[in-house]
Amino acid sequence: MIYQFCKSSRLLPVRGELAILWLRPISAPQAFVLKGVACGRGVVLTDRDFAKKTVALPNGLTMAYVEINPGASPCIVWIHGMGSYRETFHSVLTYPPVAARHLAIDLPGFGDSGRPRTKQTLADYAEAVNQFLSAVNGVGAILSGHSFGGMVAGETAARYPDRVGGVILTSAAGWMDPINALSPTRFIWVNRVGIWMTGMEWFGRRMLKALGVDPKTVSRDDRRRLRYGWRRAYEMARMGAFYHSPQFAQRLFAASLPTAVIHGSRDSLFPLQPVRAIINNQSPVWAIEGSGHVPFLSHPRQFSRVFREAFAYIQNSPRSGSR
Q1: pLDDT digit string (tens) for 17-55?
Q2: pTM of the model
Q3: Which of these, 12, 37, 102, 248, could form a disulfide with 174 (CB 3.0-4.6 Å)?
Q4: What CA–CA distance (Å, rounded) separates 15 from 54?
């Protein structure tokens, strides 16, 4: 957006748009970048990405991530969905819903993390998360996964229960196979072209609508981030059929870790009713009324409130090992 202002702090309409600016203190990594600041001149406010960090894993890959509130506790690791990357959670982590050390990662083959030589399995992703926890002193963290990231979080918890403090699953895959989802071809190059093309603004707006998000409510910078993550989903191009985790619910709950589920009432990929039936009261489910598959974009206030409640549930559970 473009704004004009003077010493009197008056905001003037620019190009027919009445600009209203809400200022409040924010920390350095979350600051806005101001360009062309001068009385009576236009100012472009750009929502800057968080500073990227990288860490080398024992498997030879480099994992990219961002860190908010280093040194705080407990630790929460945010795991993105298919066709996405760490900055998908930018709007959430700009004003984190809970006080904690927040780490948002790029899974191998996504975003700015290293590209594996071989096609990844669900076990490979779980092992990468497990190695990441050791590399950043995050053992005992709460894993917060969205969509496919929820599936990875659950798989990690099931395989390495002593390394995880709890799990918060938002619109998670794993409970059931997705419906109404795009299906890749068996030709990787065709998939790469398709991913690039569907990353265009025209397609992106329609995909957001299909996921229950009004494109008009998503900032230009967040749309840029979504496009970047989509086009750098290298592993998505060669995964073939969507990942399947046999007996996902049974294996996750057998780990006896505190688990909280957040789900949109209008999720078109993983409808709430069958998900509830599969969970069968084995963990609490917070339903966000009217939300589709990406509640932290479509219903940010409700998501923050529900996440705080889910976080409190995890923290108060006897098996929680988060620190």
Answers
A1: 333 333 333 333 333 333 333 333 333 334 689 999 999
A2: 0.83
A3: 248
A4: 41
